[in-house]
Amino acid sequence: MDTVVAAPRALLGRTITGPVSLRFRAGRIVDVVAGSPPDGAEVLTGGLLTPGLVDVQVNGAVGVDFAEVDAEGMAAVARALPRTGVTRFLPTLITAPVPVAVRQAHAVLAASATLPRHPGAKPLGVHLEGPFLSPKRAGVHDPALMVAPGPAEIDLLLNDEVLRRALRMVTLAPEQPGGLDAVRRLAAAGVLVAVGHSDATGEQTRAAAEAGARMVTHLFNAQRPLGHREPGVPGVALVDDRFTLGLIADLAHVGPDVCRLVFNAAGHRVALVTDAVAAAGMPPGRYQLGGADVLLTEDGVPRSPEGTIAGSALTLDRAVRNIVSVGVDVADALASATIVPADVIGEPTLGRLEPGAVADLVWWDDDLRPRKVWVDGEVVFDSTGLDSSALGSPALGSTALYDNPSVRMAAAGQ
After folding, report:
1. Where is substrate annotated to bind (predicted)?
2. Is 269 annotated as a binding residue?
């Protein structure tokens, strides 16, 4: 049976236009038509209709750490994320010994397989952020657990048939011994390779792109910085069109002016990510990231006991609002959370409203807050009738720490 949803404004590609009606059937969009809504359509009053958001770096949320996830925990995350507009997400595991990382990945996949057909947001596989990283740029990762990506280590990933089918992304430091060979092998196997936690020079970063790397994990964070003579990882990433740029837009990992600079330089290649940890959507307290303690205080930024930023408590809808608040066009901000991450992860039917695409949709209000969310054409979140307290922590719908009042005017096209 067909469902038709009509919106006064919709994001088609990178352009906001309207009015638009979408017809979907069996979880897929079958028609997108401009003009007045047809008879029988569900007419959305005001706001904006977009594709579902795609987050390719999620370590956990609502108290759940993917390094120690079970079926109940995965279901809790899947139910919570649609409140933030996220319809697809890539569970991320941080540095651990390779055999442990493989075991954790199998646990993530087993928990994902238990999800009912329409639990909420859907996991896309596994992202391994380590252990093939640089101890010089460890961040909160344990340098003692980092190893070079030698042939034997890569074999452990690619010779595991179950993991190989589900391994979507690996973040590594290409300057490490065997790094470029690892990039070539992983890319040839269809794995997205990202440069991250890396002390690579600009030349080494370009060499990684030549070998097949196509993304930079959390631009500027835990990597050789941009210099006016030695560009480091960020400098090359900003000018090399082969790279998609992951950006944590909580305005704490990367400041507002630099976020705007990134969009000015390479906005069409930015993929907003949360790098969310178990603390996301939770009150201040002590949580876990890869088995280590993370402290969330009133400032909303998770940190290790030593004070190092440890992932984020960001939600992807808030990242969009933050980017709009620094002066980026609404359509560009939304594209960075939809079509860009979908394309870089190799999912051409996600992140867009067009015939043949998956019917993952978000209806936003004029403050760019999700009102209603569909996954595979089924409603998985509807704020109608919910009071404001129902949208607060720990349901990932709390008021954004960095939200700017200018977002409302920008979202309304004023």
Report:
1. 140, 221-222, 229, 253, 309-311
2. no
For residue 131, what are its two tokens?
A: 């252990």
Residue 229 annotated as binding site: yes
Q: What residue spans of 240-329 are helical by DSSP H? A: 256-266, 316-325
Buried b (16+ CB within 10 A) or exposed e, 99-110: ebbbebbebbbe
* Most distant CA atoms of the chain, gap in Å: 63
Q: What are phi and psi of 105, to 5 degrees?
A: -65, -40
Residues 214 and 198 in one domain: yes
Query: Do 183 and 234 sit in the same domain of this protein?
Result: yes
For 326-373, the pLDDT digits (tens) are: 999 999 999 999 999 999 999 999 999 999 999 999 999 999 999 999
Same domain, 101 and 189: yes
Q: What is the dihedral of CA 40, 46, 48, 53, to 10 degrees?
A: -80
pTM value surpassing 0.90: yes
Q: Is 129 annotated for ligand binding?
A: yes
Pair 70, 91: CB distance under 8 Å? no
Q: Which of 65, 240, 250, 275 is catalytic?
A: 275
241 counts as catalytic: no
Segment 381-388 shows an average pLDDT of: 68
253 annotated to bind ligand: yes
The position carrying tokens 């409203």 is: 353
Q: Which domain holds residue 33?
A: 3-50+352-411
